[in-house]
Structures are given as C-alpha cells and as structure tokens.
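On clarity, I found the account of how folds are encoded harder to follow than it need be. For illustration, here is how one protein appears when written out as sequence plus structure tokens:

:::
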Amino acid sequence: METANALACLDGFPASGRRVAQQLKSSLAEVGHPEVFGQVLKLMGAETFENEITTQWIDAWVEDFESASELSAHPELGEARKNYYLGGFQSTLEDSSTVDILWPMLSTWDRAVHVLQTAEKESNYWADVKRTLRLSEEHTEQRESELEDLMDHSEEVLENWAETAGA
C-alpha cells in the first residue's frame, strides 16, 4: 500500500483512513497510473474476494475486533474505531466496489489477530481469510514476486517523473 501511496503523492496528499482504496484509485488515475491500483488489489488477493462472503467476513471481523479490544487498550482497537470502520465498510459497500473495504478490513483485522495471538487466543476465521485471499504461507513466493513487480514498476514511474519534473 505504501508503495502505491508514494505514487499517489505525486498528485497530492497520501491516501489514508477507511476510504483509502477510493482515494488511492482516484489519485493513481490522476497521475496516469491506474494500473498500480490493480497491482495493489492483486497483492491483497482481491481477485478471490467475492461479494457473497463480505457480510460473513464483516461479522467475523467484528467478533475478532471485539475480542482483541477486551485484551488491549490500544486506541486503534477501541469501540469508537470499530464503529468508525464498520460505518466505512457499510458506506463503501453501498457506494462503491466491495474490494474497496479490503485494505482497511485486512489491516485492522491483522492488528486484532496479533493481539489475540499475543494473549494465546485464536481467531476462528483469520486462517480461512488468508487462505481464501491466497495470503497464506503456500502463496508466499507468488505474492513476493507480485510485490517485487509492483516495486519495480513504481520505481520506474518515480524515476520517469523525477526526470520530467527535473527533480
């Protein structure tokens, strides 16, 4: 995400928050490189993310988030943040593509799962989510290759921009 955001910054501020996908998509299109957003989606396993599982995953996310919240005082796992992200998920699902919730969902879910694991508790869903999105260990080599491709492409875009802008 940070690699793509570096390119998005050529047009303005970095994309962030619960609408990061929409902002990133727009900024990358504005700088003339919408294909980078596709590469980011591919890295997250978006091609396997189906609309039918979205509601189930949101429910599972809530369960893990709440369990982690009980174990941690981290502000990112507080009730207000849960509601902030849930509101974003629901709004995005009404207005946009389902895959646009993937990054904020995965990044916050990963944080919650880390807290659960630290407390020697398990998520009942996380392994399935990673397997479905092909983010599990058996897909590491493929994802590393895709990440390398994204980084190489981004480096080329930045070098071209620097040459054109005289930077």
Q: What stands out?
A: The helical segments are 2-8, 20-30, 35-43, 51-71, 79-95, 102-118, 126-132, 140-165. The chain has a mean pLDDT of 91.
